[in-house]
Amino acid sequence: MAIQISSELLDGCVLGILLHDDYYGYSLTQKVQESISVSESTMYPVLRRLKKNDLLSTYDEPYQGRNRRYYKITAEGKRQFEMIKQDWQVFKGSIDKMLGDGVDHE
């Protein structure tokens, strides 16, 4: 059974990757896929939504006669990433307790 990832957590994953470097769509999808299972058809709507919400900006760079669209995290995206990261830490701690990591056994 695969655990489904929420859209907020997927947003956090994308924003976290873009904290370190800008990526074009396909390379960003591959980077995310190194850790979680996500399809290209899932990623592009996420990128469009993040851009629409001013969490990402884009720019084009020529590559072998074509343009690649690169995604860059914005200042607002960095703030949103920190909020998602904090929420994740609380959620992860709660789940870890229920799954037996750090549970006090009476």
UniProtKB/TrEMBL annotation:
Residues 14-82 form the Transcription regulator PadR N-terminal domain. Gene3D superfamilies: Winged helix-like DNA-binding domain superfamily/Winged helix DNA-binding domain. It comes from Lentilactobacillus diolivorans. It comes from the Bacteria. This is PadR family transcriptional regulator. Pfam families: PadR (PF03551).
